## 1
Amino acid sequence: MQHKPLKYKNKKTIVDDIKFDSQAESLYYVRLKAQQKIGLVRHFTLQPKFILQDGFKIRGETVRQISYIADFLVTDNQGNQRVVDVKGFPSPMSKLKRAIFLNKYPELPLYWIRLKNHAWENMKGEIFDL
């Protein structure tokens, strides 16, 4: 049986019977669980979906809704929420959806992070410690 090649050569990983698209994403999940255990994180959701544009019909054609599915929606111990996406190499489509997300949901901080040299950093190369 042939397997479909991975889009960005990620290594799919399973933790707690949850399949993650990359090892880095699973490691961030483990980090969130640890933060939840010590009270830094109140709650987190996997694969939260945000509607960027509702579907519609025009001249008999159906246009599907456009959504952004992040990796995590995190609520800290003070009730503040943030959206976290673990990225390796953002695609042009993900950059476009990010721009629309930032415009539509300005109240929700969106962090694109990656694991580099055993530290989490945002896409600007700054250490991400949330």
## 2
Amino acid sequence: MRAFIRMLAPHTYMDRQRRAGLLFVLPAVAYFSCVFLIPLGESVLGSFYRTQPGGTGQFVGLRLYQKVLTDPTFWQTVRNTVTLLFMSVPVTAVLALAVALGLHRLLSLRWRSVWTAMYFLPFSVSLVAAALVWQWIYDPVYGVLNHLLGRVGLPPLNWLQSLDLVLPSLALINVWARLGFDTLIFLAALQAIPGEYYEAASIDGASQWQIFGRVTLPLLNPQIVMVAILEIIFNFKVFDTVYATTQGGPAAASQTVIMLLYDTAFKFFRLGDASVIAVFVFVSLLALTLLQWRLFRRQVEY
């Protein structure tokens, strides 16, 4: 026993460093396991059981997968989610990059900090509170947006009550809420690019657009990939803003996958079906993340 304890005890400096590093990350690993890995395992296990009255479960194999994945309502929510994602992610990334470039050009550090804080402020606001504010802005009778349209002679619109306008309206809320966070990521990356690269490009006679396309964008590639991944995950799992503004309406035109999961689990108490939806969301996000990381991440050296 003593020999086994001596074998586990660190002998060299590197052994002590590895042990110290393991002890430092152990709380984070334990938290991640309790909050994410264990519920994920329970969801995978629960997707094979149909919940019976009284809380008991009946093993049904892959029947719940067949039931959920052949349900037209489920695929309608997937289409709504993907549509919202395509409306939000590119606009958020492009606008955040443009704002970061503008802030990076500000010579005054004080004004740069002030404008950065203003752009970041919406990200610090609760999504439910932000959704309620935007619900008031979109109000067809008393809303600020329709009031502005009336001032320029345009008719009022039913932003959240229209089948065609509800998803673009929700996408605008997501862009507003996420713009500041992505701007900070791009701004930090821009400030980390050495100035010698720009000086060398200017000496070689490169124009501003050539410098942007040949120097800035390639060096921002890791941050662009990271922002794209984070925004896809956020928009695929969006729930707060949709639930607080439309509750999935009108006529389920804005119901997302996570809203369907919530309704299935906590309104209709079909926990097995909800577990199948949770597994679908996890597998989809994992596949999209790995695909993006594989296709768009590249090493750039100058």
## 3
Amino acid sequence: MASLTTPIDNLMRSALLSAADNRALRRFMYRHGMSLGARRFVAGETLDEFLAVVRLVNERGFTVACGMLGEGVQDRNDAATVVRDYRHILTCFASEGLRSNVALKLTHLGLVIDCDLARQNLTAIVQHARSFNNFVRVDMEQSAYTDATLSIYRSLREAGLTNVGTVLQAYLRRSEDDVRSLFPLKPNVRLVKGAYLEAPEVALTKRADVDRNYVRLIELSLRESGFTAIATHDHVIIDHSMEFIKRHGIADDRYEFQMLYGVRPKLQGELRSRGYKVRLAIPFGSQWYPYLMRRLAERPANLFFFLGTLWRK
């Protein structure tokens, strides 16, 4: 079931995640990165570019999770602008009939400034989404924000907002307890492996252990949650999930597979051709560089693709 990792894999991942904070590389990438291959993973920097990609993806039978790139906002006015932008995006989806919801980070809404501010901003977006019968996913960030994120999620659910979901990361040691604690809410949960650097006391460090925990979370969530989004490109885990779904008679409206835009497109198409619901997480925006570094760190094939593009240039 589990895949193996090597010291070279870990070293490469650490180097790429550290590169996200390298100022010189950041300047170079913001100047040249889009033309050098970043568009495989990011749908441009503007909303118009993003909407054009969503239309094409919808036509191919995929739904979309919109991510407007940005995090760590430290100014209230900037956070208010993010709220207005997300509300406008949701309005655009409704006016065009696009099959897309949104996924956002609470630090993009001001969590670093004040927890209540982030809660108020999220509430405004979720209420706007509800007016269009749409949905908002609260992404999970570094473990330092896990408690606050889950607390805010619970507060919205307790306030009667059901069109909001959250994310749990399999590499965090706490995640099984977290998913069990959410079961009374019949939550809409997206399960991922995790993409941040964390201390060993907080997170599992071996890929095999992460994979085993991920499968355990998927099985628990499929049995008990209201809805489970299985977000992975690991075909072994996908095959196991499909077999588990069939064996336990999990209804089609209680799960979907989610994948990142530009990552393993052949596998995405194969799942769609077999009748499974597949949602693509498609990011856009000017702050795309840290996102790209995390995508390259997650899977060596992504890095090799990008380096191949540089070589061809």
